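I am still getting used to backbone structure tokens and would like to learn alongside you. To get us started, please write out a protein record for me. Start from the sequence, derive the backbone structure tokens from it, and show both lines together. Once you have written the record down, we can walk along the chain together:
***
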Amino acid sequence: MNYELFIAKRIVAAKEYKSSISSPIIKIAIVAISLGVIIMMIAMATGIGLQQKIREKIAGFNGHIQITNFDNNYSEITLEPVSINQDFYPNFSNISNVKKVQVYATKGGIIRTATDFEGIILKGISKDYDWSFFEEYLVEGNLPDYTKDTSFDVLISKEISNRMHIGVGDEFNILFVKEDPSKTPWLRVVKAVGIYNSGFQDFDENFVIADIRHIQKMNRWKENEVGGFEVLLNDFDEIEEKSNEIYTQTASTLNSQSIIEKYPAIFEWIGLFDNNIYLIIAIMIIVAGINMITALLVLILERTQMIGILKALGSSNVSIRKVFLYNAGYLILKGLFWGNIIGLFLLFAQKYGGFITLDPNTYYVTTVPIYINLKYLVALNLGTLVLCLSMLIIPSIIISKINPAKSIKFE
């Protein structure tokens, strides 16, 4: 029988334990652990959630990896065509983790209405396009259908809709300047069949989604020529590795570029979130550990007579230390329990309620995104429990300094 655990349970269950001098300090320690866990959960869920949401949005507009011609073009506009007759299209058969390969082309244009005009990037896509991203952010209308004849239906953003006063079902003009500015620009009369709102203003204010065949015709490309390929991955964590693999397995005339390479400033910024998460977790564990050390010392000093009796009965210092560590473990688990209950309630409320909003111009999202992962939560709780208990081992050495002869008192 584990008599140390038995004694610890009796101490916890005793009535005088709940009304002792140490009771307020114990409650403060439990509250500190609960608050620490809540803050750590929020920091982890929001930090990782924001990282993932920004990655998803950038990938939604660009794919994870883009394959284009080797040239000095660093703009969003594709200039030189690429033949779709590639070994890797429509699928990379010898590279794992590739979800889809789809074609695209982009061209700069100007939306012109009776009262306004606005520069945009027309992104042409084909029937192989993965619409899952825009399905999530579609707020009005329907997605265009490019599986049949050349379609004049387009998908515009809420940002463009508001600024240009274009609604679902409205037709409007897009002008495209020719290589020779002296010639009359191309004019396309298109119809807005859907409106999306990703909250990523840098993209929303620029991109209009259309049939790629318009760009092929204006650029005088053949039917089998496109601006490039977008590669979608199943696992973002492998993006750099897969980008290198794709680079080595494509023709020497082609270049592959991941979105991390294309938008380094954004990914460096969201990479700093990891440091913030680690710092918050470290601070919260230290604060919780200090509170538990205080509570443990008060418990030991309050029960010096019991410690003296146990020593007189032959208990070793190690066994008595286990009693108090079990006791402290109970307090930590109690704090973790309430911290998880309250923390999960707040996280799910934000996840499905979205009551905390953000400025999309700064954070690229309109509400605080939440990422909840069971493995991360288990690791966070186990790590907190182990580290807090480890911090209590050294303070518990004070038990060995207690003299049974002086501590046992008979009234």
Remarks:
- The longest helix spans residues 23-62.
- The chain has a mean pLDDT of 86.
- The first strand starts at residue 65 and ends at 69.
